[in-house]
Design goal:
CATH superfamily: Cupredoxins -  blue copper proteins
Low-confidence stretches: 6-58
Order of helices and strands: HHHHEEEEEEEEE
Mean pLDDT: 73
Number of helices: 4
Strand content: 35-45%
CATH architecture: Sandwich
CATH topology: Immunoglobulin-like
């Protein structure tokens, strides 16, 4: 004898993917070596001491900030360059510290930010166009991170 349909089970099956999808940015940056506090967009001392933000930083949904702290010494990038998932419309906050003055360039949005040796620089923008945004340091030419915006 077949069992009658369970409406509660159907609702659960439909709700789980929505809950898991969320904004997507915070969990993927946490998986890339970020602490939950920096991935969720909370301020830290490096961000407060930075030289300000560049680009457009429009409001993004709560809990939708993707944060990544990057350090460059010589030709070594920490954490190593990787692809980080970002949801379109979510704020991206990069804190970059270098051992020599240079410039950070974000492709797709054509954002350039000068960075001074030993001083953390905060770069903030909200990507709206889907695609891969490469973030590079010039002099020396180094890939810092790839942002996969979906």
């Amino acid at each position: 004898m077949p069992h009658p349909p369970r409406p509660g089970l159907a609702a659960l099956v439909l709700a789980v993917p929505l809950v898991l999808a969320g904004c997507g940015g915070a969990a993927s940056s946490a998986a890339q070596g970020e602490s939950p506090s920096s991935a969720s967009g909370s301020s830290d001392s490096a961000s407060s001491a930075s030289s300000g933000s560049a680009g457009s930083a429009s409001a993004s949904p709560s809990g939708c900030t993707v944060g990544r702290t990057i350090t460059v010494k010589g030709s070594s990038v920490t954490p190593p360059p990787a692809s980080v998932d970002v949801t379109s419309g979510c704020l991206v906050r990069l804190i970059v510290t270098v051992d020599r003055s240079s410039e950070v360039h974000v492709h797709v949005v054509n954002l350039d930010k000068p960075v001074t040796a030993g001083t953390p620089a905060t770069i903030e923008f909200t990507p709206t166009q889907q695609g891969v945004y490469e973030v590079e340091l010039h002099d020396p030419d180094l890939l810092l991170v790839k942002l996969a915006v979906r």
